[in-house]
Amino acid sequence: MKKSPILAAVLLVTACAGSPDNHYFTLSAVAPSQAPARNLPPIHLTAVRLPELYDRPQMVTRTGPQSVDIAEYDRWAEPLERMATRVLAQDVTARRPGGGTPTSVPLAATILIDEFGADRSGTARLSGTWKIIDSEGTARGGAFSFTEPSGGDPAAAAAAMSALLGKLADDIDRR
């Protein structure tokens, strides 16, 4: 039986009409938890690395120790690693607004993230390690692990993940 072009067009329009809309989310900088310090050397983020599991267009929700849900219609507005780097740099700069003394050399920071996302229980997590190297080559840093209530929807998860980057910036600034 030969199908007419009109029937094919109707079927195509009907199939496409039922697909859900994409929703796009961003991270944003958060204010420091305490008054910013003055005259501390600025920090330059040389690398922020995320596992590819999280650095994808779709939002990832951990569903168990070895399982995740990748939300097809809940998406990041830009690549997550690039956005997290930009927002973390804004957070770190907000904690060191003076830029140090005129002779201050920026400190080089490397952030390696192991986990950055929300889970089904309503908790967002950020964990990994960071290292700062000063102008003399002395390194400091360590492991970090933060949690934040994330509610049950993607917008709340994005807000919680923004708050986690602020906690990391606070941690870097204190040490």
How would you describe this structure to a colleague?
The chain is of the alpha/beta class and 175 residues long. The chain has one domain: ABC-type transport auxiliary lipoprotein component (Rossmann fold). It contains 3 helices and 7 strands; from the N terminus they run H-E-E-E-E-H-E-E-E-H. The chain has helices spanning 5-17, 80-95, 154-174; strands at residues 23-25, 43-49, 58-64, 67-76, 107-119, 123-133, 139-149. Strands 1, 2, 3, 4, 5, 6 and 7 form a 7-stranded mixed beta sheet that branches. Helix 2 (80-95) packs across helix 3 (154-174). It is elongated, with a radius of gyration of 21 Å. The N and C termini lie far apart (75 Å). The model has no long low-confidence stretch (mean pLDDT 87).
Key features of this structure:
single chain, seven-stranded mixed sheet, 35% strand, 175 residues, 3 helices, Rossmann fold, alpha/beta
Short description:
With 175 residues, this protein is α/β, with parallel strands linked by helices. Helix content is 29%, strand content 35%.
What is this structure's SSE topology?
Layout: H1 5-17, E1 23-25, E2 43-49, E3 58-64, E4 67-76, H2 80-95, E5 107-119, E6 123-133, E7 139-149, H3 154-174
Parallel strand pairs: 1-4, 2-5, 3-5
Antiparallel strand pairs: 3-4, 5-6, 6-7
Helix pairs in contact: 2-3
